[in-house]
Structures are given as structure tokens and as C-alpha cells.
Design goal:
Blueprint lengths: L1 E2 L4 E6 L8 E7 L7 E9 L6 H18 L8 H18 L8 E9 L2 E7 L3 E6 L2 E4 L7 H9 L5 H6 L19 E2 L4 E2 L5 E5 L8 H10 L5 H14 L8 E7 L2 H28 L1
């Protein structure tokens, strides 16, 4: 577990795997009181020798491009995604272990009190607000396809749950054309007390009711304790072959909003006092 600040934290666990194939990056690009944060999570495609390298490469190049590009963070996400994907293609030419390797990628940006995101693969972006858990991005595994088959009566829910294809990815970063991309239609305004959660598919061991129940209990917890609680709850299930688990938690800080309001009020009072003083001296 690594806690970065009162507002955001991240945690990882190997699960029951021998190698850590998840990678994460947090960039704090804030200037003064103008908050600008970037969270990036990648999950290497399991079973490939270059899985871990692919994930590390993707978050590194994504972060570098997003950090140095111009404009709001929300407008840099697609550029950074394409750049990270291109970097995998270039590396595959130079490094034999990269050939056929790939990863999922999820990035979320918080800027000006609003959330933007982009994702490829099956990592999840959640918003927990007022006791309700909402998944914001699309799932690019086969699970939604199988669920659609269940809805049409072409297979049972039990058959879908056992289907060996359910974890197969329909889209990933491999250096080739990206088939499916999930993006925020526009920046989503955050409210005080909102919790934003990025998670690799290792957290899928917990269903939505279980995650919701934990987050309800964690309303007053700091982000680090929330991330730790999610990891422990996942491991407590004792799933065979538990995948790597990575979570990043961001909590909209009420105290900072109060401080910003206090600063604006003080500046307003100062300006009024200057005007009054100027009038008296004339």
C-alpha cells in the first residue's frame, strides 16, 4: 500500500500470481489552488512474457505525453493513449519479448472539479456518490457480449458464468489499431464527498453490492484506508488463482473546497475595503 495524500491513494497486491503485471502512475500537475491530477492504470495481458513490460511502458509513455502536451487534460487523453500504443509497436521491433504483448489501460483526469477518462480493456472506473456505485466506462471483455446472449435467451446465466471466453479481451493496447475505446462524453462535474475508484479486473472478485457496502462504511475513511479495505476484502474471498489487484482512490476533499471559499471571501472583503478607503481619501 502506498498513500500519496489526503485526497488520493493507491494499493496493489499480487493476489495468487507470481508476477505483478499491473502498473500504475499518479501525476499531480496542480498549480497553486488549481487542482490537476492524472491517474493511469494498466494491466498486462496475462500469460505473455512481456505483460509486465507492456503495462509499465504504457503508463510511462501515457504519462509523459499527457504531462507535456498543451491544453486541458481532458483533451490530452486520446493523444496520450495513441502515443502509448505507438510506443508498444516501436518497442516490439526492438525487443523480441514484446512481440504479441499488450495491456489494458485506464486513465482518469481531475481538473477544475471535473472528471474525464479514457479506457481500453476491462479495468473499471467507478463513481461512488451518495451511497450509490456507478460504473462509468465500458467493459471490453467478452462478459457484456455473453450477458447480451443471456438477455436474448440464447444461453443461461450459469452457462455465461462458466464460459471460458468471458475474460477474453475485445480491445487492448498491442501496438496495432485499437478496436474499442471508452471515453467520457464531456467532463463530469464532481460533488463534495464523491469517491472515484480505478481498479484492475482483479477487483472483479467482489461484486458491486460488496464494493458498495464497503464504500458506505468507508465514507469517513481517508483514501489510503479505503484502498486497503478493498484489497483486504478481495483477498478475504480466497478465490483460486486470484489475479493481481490494483486500486486507485480519489476523494473530493470537502475541506479544500471550504478553504477556497474562505479565500475568495477574504479577497472580496479586501477589495471592498480598498474601495471604501479610496473613497474616503478622495
Amino acid at each position: 500500500m502506498t498513500e500519496f495524500s489526503r485526497q488520493f491513494a493507491a494499493g496493489q497486491n499480487l493476489g495468487k500470481r507470481e508476477n505483478q503485471e499491473d502498473a500504475l502512475l499518479i501525476l499531480d500537475l496542480s498549480q497553486g489552488r488549481h487542482e490537476r491530477l492524472l491517474f493511469v492504470l494498466a494491466d498486462g495481458m496475462g500469460g505473455h512474457i512481456g505483460a509486465s513490460k507492456a503495462a509499465q511502458s504504457a503508463v510511462h509513455h501515457f504519462g509523459e505525453i499527457a504531462r507535456t502536451a498543451a491544453g486541458p487534460l481532458s483533451q490530452r487523453l486520446r493523444l496520450a493513449l495513441d502515443g502509448a500504443n505507438a510506443a508498444l509497436a516501436i518497442t516490439a521491433v526492438r525487443d523480441e519479448t514484446f512481440k504479441g504483448a499488450g495491456c489494458t489501460l485506464l486513465a482518469a483526469a481531475v481538473e477544475g472539479g471535473a472528471l474525464s477518462w479514457i479506457s481500453v480493456g476491462d479495468s473499471s472506473l467507478f463513481l461512488f456518490r451518495a451511497g450509490k456505485l456507478l460504473k462509468l466506462n465500458d467493459d471490453h471483455s467478452m462478459r457484456p457480449v455473453l450477458s447480451a446472449q443471456v438477455a436474448k435467451g440464447r444461453m443461461t446465466a450459469a452457462e455465461a458464468a462458466r464460459d471460458p471466453r468471458r475474460h477474453m479481451l475485445r480491445s487492448a493496447l498491442t501496438g496495432e489499431d485499437i478496436r474499442l475505446v471508452s471515453t467520457s462524453p464531456s467532463p463530469l462535474a464532481l460533488e463534495q464527498g464523491d469517491l472515484v475508484l480505478l481498479a484492475s479486473d482483479g477487483l472483479d472478485t467482489l461484486d458491486h453490492p460488496a464494493i458498495t457496502s464497503l464504500l458506505k462504511r468507508a465514507v469517513r475513511w481517508p483514501p489510503g484506508a479505503t484502498a486497503e479495505g478493498l484489497l483486504k476484502s478481495t483477498l478475504r474471498v480466497g478465490k483460486m488463482n486470484q489475479d493481481n489487484i490494483t486500486v486507485i482512490c480519489y476523494k473530493q476533499n470537502k475541506q479544500e473546497h471550504k478553504q477556497d471559499h474562505k479565500h475568495r471571501l477574504l479577497w472580496l472583503l479586501f477589495a471592498v475595503a480598498c474601495l471604501v478607503l479610496g473613497y474616503l481619501l478622495v
